[in-house]
Structure formats: structure tokens, C-alpha cells
């Protein structure tokens, strides 16, 4: 963008369709070479990846490190198509080069595209400010490789209990279909919102159930209690709405999927009006 803005200012400055250039610079510490076990005359590259999960698009930029007589530094620019991004993107940065594998065979002793260093976590690039409503985006399903259905609840396959809800889950509404306008403006039939709510309930608990073996019940409970915007907190709320504690809800999600789906529909009052 011109003029340049900080990432946290993007929601106030960026307009849909406006192309972006994400600029990342890095400087290698003097001990970098020794810690990686490579000589200073070998080429290493700064790589930046920007991924938009909504649009299912990814952009990359890379630049070699150069020595100016004092320090090794690099700056990379990642050009992002403004027509292909929405809601938020994730920035990943790494230093890539010839990593030593320690293999006794010299032919296998070097991994030429090893990640010698990377950010401990991706950086979120926000394009809009999310309010209290459930995270929702209106997109073309045809252009983003989704099925021809009116809506879809997506859950990040690696969503963890401590993640924020907006990073873990999102409702997508298909603007290719005429139903999108009424769904988005709140005028669709009541049963549609009940069905969407049931889908959200089921998707959330299925995902947390799929990853819960990697976390203790205490950790999940702490995530829910300490951050009300976390994925764990949302799942805990959903379990309560369904009439379960969280551990029981996750066990049902793992062992009796159809029972969970039925309970989610019941809790959402899906088409339960008496004739």
C-alpha cells in the first residue's frame, strides 16, 4: 500500500481489491553460522509466505542474505493480490539454506532447502475488524474450490484449544447462490439459521475431539476459563447448550457422531415447530 501502514492499521486503511506488498527484513546474529554448522560463504535465503485461508491462496517472496561489511541482512517483498484476499491472512517467515543432517553418507549430509530458522508462530494480518458475531465471510464457492452448497462451516485442521475462535472456525456463505443475500441480511427463513447453528455446533466439537488426545482436560479447561474468546471456550459453551459437560460432549463426538449431530439439531430447535 502507498503510503505504508503497520499491520495492525490495515483494517482501517485497506479497501477490498487493493493490492498489498508485505515487506519483511531480517538480520542474522553473528552466532547464526556456528549454531547452524555452516560456513559463512554458503547462500541462505529469507523466505516469506502469506496464506489466506478464506480464499485458499498463497503468495511467496524470497531474497538472499547479503553482507554489507558489518552484518548479514535481507529484505523480502511479498506481493498479494487484493482481489483474492479477505478477512485475514497469515504470514510465515523463515531462513532457508543448506542445513547439515548429520548423515554419514556425504550425499545425504546436506538438506539444501532446510528451514534454519523460522518464526515461532505465524503472524496474523487482519483485513477487517471482527465484532461479536460468529466469524462469517461471503465468498464465491466456485472460485474458491468449494461445493455448490449455500453455506459451509470450515474448521482449521490444526485448530488448537488456545486458538482464538476467529482463527479456528469460520462460516462461509456462497454468494454464487441467490440464498446468500437473505442469509447475510438476516431475512432468510428461521430454519436456515437453525441449520447453520447446528452445523457450527457439530463442527466445533468434532474438531476439538479430534485433537484432544494431545491436551490434558486441565489444559483445555484452563484455556476456556482464561480466554472467553478461545476455541476451547466456545466448545465449552456449545457442550453446555447441548446439555453436556465438555469431556462428555467430546467423547460423544468421537464415539457416536450421529448422536452428536442430532443433539446439535435439537439444541438449535431445527424445524421443531409443531404443526
Q: Would you kindly provide a written description of the structure presented here, covering whatever features stand out?
A:
The protein is α+β, with helices and mostly antiparallel strands. Helix content is 31%, strand content 28%. It contains nine helices and eleven strands. The protein has helices at residues 10-13, 32-36, 165-168, 179-185, 190-211, 217-226, 231-242, 246-255, 257-267; strands at 20-28, 45-52, 57-64, 66-67, 72-80, 88-100, 110-118, 123-126, 136-139, 151-155, 169-174. Strands 2, 3, 6, 7 and 8 form a five-stranded antiparallel beta sheet that branches. Strand 4 (66-67) and strand 5 form a beta hairpin. Helix 5 packs antiparallel against helix 9 and helix 6 crosses helix 7. The longest helix has 22 residues, at 190-211. The termini are far apart.
Short key terms for the protein model shown above:
three-stranded antiparallel beta sheet; 2 domains; single chain; 275 residues; 28% strand
Strand content: 25-35%
Q: How many domains make up the coordinates? A: 2
Characterize the main sheet: 5 strands, antiparallel
Radius of gyration: 23 Å
Q: Supply the helix-strand structural class.
A: alpha+beta
What's the quick description here?
The chain is α+β, with helices and mostly antiparallel strands and 275 residues long. It has helices spanning 10-13, 32-36, 165-168, 179-185, 190-211, 217-226, 231-242, 246-255, 257-267, and strands at 20-28, 45-52, 57-64, 66-67, 72-80, 88-100, 110-118, 123-126, 136-139, 151-155, 169-174.
Amino acid at each position: 500500500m502507498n503510503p505504508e501502514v503497520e499491520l495492525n492499521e490495515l483494517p482501517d486503511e485497506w479497501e477490498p481489491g487493493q493490492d498489498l506488498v508485505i515487506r519483511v527484513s531480517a538480520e542474522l546474529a553473528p552466532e547464526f553460522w556456528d549454531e547452524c554448522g555452516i560456513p559463512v560463504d554458503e547462500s541462505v535465503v529469507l523466505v516469506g509466505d502469506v496464506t489466506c485461508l478464506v480464499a485458499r491462496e498463497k503468495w511467496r517472496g524470497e531474497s538472499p542474505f547479503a553482507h554489507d561489511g558489518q552484518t548479514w541482512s535481507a529484505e523480502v517483498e511479498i506481493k498479494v493480490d487484493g482481489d483474492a484476499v479477505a478477512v485475514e491472512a497469515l504470514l510465515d517467515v523463515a531462513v532457508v539454506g543448506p542445513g547439515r543432517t548429520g548423515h554419514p553418507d556425504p550425499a545425504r549430509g546436506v538438506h539444501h532447502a532446510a528451514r534454519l530458522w523460522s518464526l515461532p508462530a505465524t503472524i496474523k494480518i487482519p483485513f477487517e475488524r471482527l465484532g461479536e458475531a460468529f466469524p462469517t465471510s461471503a465468498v464465491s464457492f466456485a472460485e474458491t474450490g468449494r461445493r455448490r452448497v449455500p453455506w459451509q462451516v470450515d474448521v482449521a485442521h490444526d485448530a488448537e484449544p488456545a486458538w482464538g475462535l476467529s482463527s479456528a472456525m469460520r462460516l462461509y456463505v456462497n454468494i454464487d447462490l441467490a440464498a446468500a443475500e437473505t442469509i447475510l441480511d438476516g431475512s432468510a427463513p428461521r430454519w436456515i439459521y437453525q441449520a447453520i447453528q447446528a452445523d457450527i455446533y457439530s463442527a466445533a466439537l468434532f474438531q476439538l475431539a479430534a485433537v484432544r488426545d494431545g491436551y490434558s482436560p486441565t489444559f483445555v479447561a484452563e484455556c476456556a476459563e482464561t480466554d472467553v474468546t478461545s476455541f476451547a471456550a466456545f466448545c465449552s459453551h456449545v457442550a453446555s447448550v447441548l446439555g453436556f459437560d465438555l469431556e462428555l460432549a467430546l467423547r460423544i463426538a468421537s464415539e457416536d457422531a450421529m448422536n452428536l449431530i442430532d443433539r446439535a439439531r435439537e439444541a438449535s430447535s431445527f424445524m421443531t415447530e409443531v404443526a
